[in-house]
């Protein structure tokens, strides 16, 4: 197998959450058969496989030597530098021997919720309703361990939120095959408080191109703010319970086959655009924060920033904000437009 083909195979495995293959990247780099672009990609993925900020920075700087014009690598380096002063390297992320059947989420806008891991890299699925605009959550495991999780993306129309936990998981996720689902079969929704709520699959066709599973469980009977993993009688994961319903009070479950592609995309976004953030208002991926913008390019909401952003990259922001012939901001002169009288570039209010 050619070095480039082997590199692509390793990257695909890591995108799927298997970081145990990261050692192969070192072997490929040591062999000296990768071109400059391949070396840059290998260093970037070595950085992603580590939780040590210093090592990440070291890898990304090596990647930049191989690809000096790569803007995403430059952004990744800048995002790490913006976190200075660098804290002592944290211990390696803990590894769970298997996928827990249910975990707890706390700190969201609507109280405690349940969730389930959907990737080996520690990504959780729960409900958008539970979290609201909260960016930092507390994750509880059944062994009493409590971790701090970070919101990656929200999809309000699906009532789905994806949260990253600082751990990795061994084993594999037991997923029910869609072809084996049958109307009338027994289901069980798990709550982190120990609740086991029985239900029945009432429909799966004609519900948003297979996104949804209709259940006999009323939304009022959910044990918490949702996100309860739904299993079949064989213990295979079907999806998560949401607060959505199909024209009545019976809760819909979001199919795991709809969740996994969104989780994989969120993971790729996190790897390739580390400076982007989840907009607290619309839940979309806001790239404006990478370039010093203070407001979401999709909805105009103010973005969460731990400190004053770096000097704005005006050309990139013009593209993101789709500047038009709007009147100039009296403070920064940008013509990006206004949202509720606040400039989408600098955030300051105009009374004009």
List the helices and strands and how they pair.
Blueprint: H1 3-15, H2 23-31, H3 36-48, H4 53-66, H5 71-81, E1 95-96, E2 103-106, E3 113-117, E4 123-126, H6 128-131, E5 136-140, E6 146-155, E7 160-164, E8 168-169, E9 186-190, E10 196-203, E11 212-218, E12 229-232, E13 237-245, E14 250-255, H7 256-272, E15 277-278, E16 285-286, H8 314-321, E17 338-339, E18 342-343
Question: Can you tell me about this structure?
Answer:
With 352 residues, the protein is α+β, with helices and mostly antiparallel strands. It has four domains: 3-81; 95-169, Beta Barrel (Thrombin, subunit H); 178-260, Trypsin-like serine proteases (Thrombin, subunit H), CATH 2.40.10.10; 277-343, no CATH class. 25% of the residues lie in helices and 24% in strands. It has eight helices and 18 strands. The strands form five sheets. It has a six-stranded antiparallel β-barrel. A six-stranded antiparallel β-barrel has the order 9-10-11-14-13-12. A hairpin with a 6-residue loop joins strand 15 (277-278) and strand 16. The longest helix has 17 residues, at 256-272. The relative contact order is 0.10.
């Amino acid at each position: 197998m050619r070095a480039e083909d082997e590199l692509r195979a390793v990257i695909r495995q890591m995108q799927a959450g298997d970081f145990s293959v990261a050692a192969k990247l070192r072997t490929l780099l040591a062999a000296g058969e990768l071109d400059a672009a391949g070396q840059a990609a290998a260093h970037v993925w070595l950085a992603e496989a580590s939780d040590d900020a210093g090592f990440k920075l070291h890898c990304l700087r090596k990647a930049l030597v191989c690809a000096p014009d790569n803007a995403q690598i430059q952004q990744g380096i800048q995002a790490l530098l913006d976190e200075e002063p660098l804290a002592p390297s944290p211990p390696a992320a803990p590894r769970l021997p298997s996928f827990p059947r249910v975990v707890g989420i706390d700190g969201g806008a609507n109280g405690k919720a349940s969730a389930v891991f959907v990737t080996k890299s520690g990504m959780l699925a729960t409900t958008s309703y539970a979290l609201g605009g909260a960016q930092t959550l507390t994750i509880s495991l059944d062994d009493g361990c409590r971790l701090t999780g970070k919101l990656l993306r929200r999809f309000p129309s699906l009532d789905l939120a994806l949260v990253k936990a600082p751990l990795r998981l061994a084993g594999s996720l037991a997923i029910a095959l869609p072809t084996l689902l049958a109307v009338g079969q027994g289901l069980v929704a798990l709550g982190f408080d120990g609740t086991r709520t029985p239900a029945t699959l009432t429909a799966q066709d004609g519900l948003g191109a297979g996104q949804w599973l209709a259940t006999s469980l009323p939304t009022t009977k959910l044990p918490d703010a949702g996100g309860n993993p739904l299993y079949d009688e064989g213990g295979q994961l079907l999806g998560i319970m949401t607060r959505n319903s199909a024209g009545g009070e019976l809760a819909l479950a979001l199919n795991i086959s709809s969740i996994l592609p969104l989780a994989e995309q969120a993971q790729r976004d996190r790897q390739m655009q580390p400076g982007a953030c989840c907009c607290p208002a619309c839940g979309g991926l806001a790239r404006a924060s990478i370039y010093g913008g203070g407001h979401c390019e999709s909805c105009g909401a103010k973005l969460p920033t731990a400190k004053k952003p770096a000097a704005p990259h005006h050309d990139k922001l013009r593209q993101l904000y789709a500047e038009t012939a709007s009147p100039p901001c009296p403070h920064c002169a940008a013509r990006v437009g206004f949202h509720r009288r606040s400039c989408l570039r600098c955030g300051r209010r105009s009374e004009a």
